[in-house]
Amino acid sequence: MNRLSLVPSLLHHSRASRETLLRFQDRQLRRVIRHAYANVPYYRRLFDSAGVRPEHIRTSADMYRIPITTKNDLRGLPPEDVVARGVDPQKLISHTTGGSSGEPFVVRRSWMEERILGVPRIRTLLYYGLRRHDVVALLIFNHKSNPNDYQLPQRLMQKIHRVKAQWIHCLVPPEEMLEQLAAIQPEVLGGYAGVLSRLSQLVKEPGRPSIRPRMVLTGGETLTPFMSRQISEAFNAPVYDTYGSHEFSRTAWQCKETGEYHVCDDAVLLEVLRDDQPVAIGERGEVVGTALHSFAMPFIRYRLGDIVTRGKESCACGQPFSTLREIQGRMVDYFPLPDGRLLHPYEIASALQNSAMRWVGQYRIVQERKDCIVLLAVPAIAPTVEQLSELEALAGKVLGPTVRFHVRLVDGLELGKRGKFRVYQSLVHSAYDNPGEPVAEGELAESTSGGSSELR
Ligand SMILES: [Zn+2]
Question: What is the CATH class of 1-327?
Answer without folding.
Answer: alpha beta
